[in-house]
Amino acid sequence: MKPAPFLLSLLLSIPTGALAQSEEWQLAKEEDGVRVYLSHVPGSRYKSFRGVTLVKADVSTLGHLQENLRVSCAWLYACAQMRLLKYTDEAIWVYLDTKLPWPAAPRDLVLQVSTEETPDGGMIRRLQAAPDYIPPVEGRIRVPMLSGTWQLVPKGPKLTEVIYQMRADPGGSVPSWLANQFVVDAPLVTLRTLRVVAEHQEIQAPGY
User: Fold this and answer.
1) Is residue 6 part of a domain?
2) 163-201: string of b/e by CB count within 10 Å (b at 16+)?
3) DSSP H or E run through 70
4) Where is the START domain (predicted)?
5) Which of 57, 87, 145, 146 lies in the 20 to 30 Å Cα band around 171?
């Protein structure tokens, strides 16, 4: 998942700043140093989320934790399995199988991920669902629409602001209470767990 000088957008090649300005974010929860904001998506039953936290680790450490798919599945909320489908200089395609809480049916998704380095030494990963990239998997509902970004913004030596933003349509039927719980728990648990893993890795790094 090497940084690629380009493009896309897990959210559809809309610049991250433009997307942030076009949405009205409301703080939904703040816990353990993680802030979760929600926004209504016109024409959708599901809200988008934005999670923000500070991590005592550099951009490189966080980038490597995202690029190791086995490790990233361990800290990504509701991830059961993640595997690489294709790699190019411009993007990668990843298959992700989920383990959602009952009564939601199991879902899977294919993500197209592109990476862009920013002038300040940070990084933006743009994600977008590619539901037709591989055939349907028996026993799984394929997520038809998902777009989002990971932003890694350096804030000082060994200090990075992490912004995780996503909007999606899970497909099929999902109880409203579960959907509302997911858009809060997904960024909260993901960022909290990523922070623990990244900061532990920094402590264990030689010469720390």
Assistant:
1) no
2) bbbbbbebbeebeeeeeeebbbbbbbbbbbebbebbeeb
3) helix 69-75
4) 18-203
5) 87
- What number of CA atoms fall less than 13 Å from residue 73's CA on the CB side? 14
- Total domains in the fold of the chain: 1
Residue 144 lies in a domain: yes
Residue with tokens 């629409």: 145
Q: Is 3 within a domain? A: no
Could you tell me which residues come within 8 angstroms of residue 35 by beta carbon, excluding any fewer than 6 positions away? 27, 29, 51, 52, 53
Q: Report in angstroms the alpha-carbon separations of 2 from 81, 91, 123.
A: 21, 9, 11
| 53 in a structural domain | yes
Give CA–CA dist 140/13, Å, rounded: 28
Distance CA 92, CA 181 (A): 30
Q: Are 158 and 179 in contact (CB under 8 A)?
A: no
Specify the pTM.
Answer: 0.86
Residue pair 9/149 in contact by the 8 Å Cβ criterion: yes
* Length reported for the chain: 208
Which CATH number fits the domain that encloses residue 101?
3.30.530.20
Range of the domain at 163: 16-204
Digit-coded pLDDT (tens) for 106-156: 999 999 999 999 999 999 999 999 999 999 999 999 999 999 999 999 999
- How confident is the model over 9-54, as pLDDT tens digits? 333 333 344 444 456 999 999 999 999 999 998 888 899 999 999 9
Q: What is the pLDDT of residue 201?
A: 85
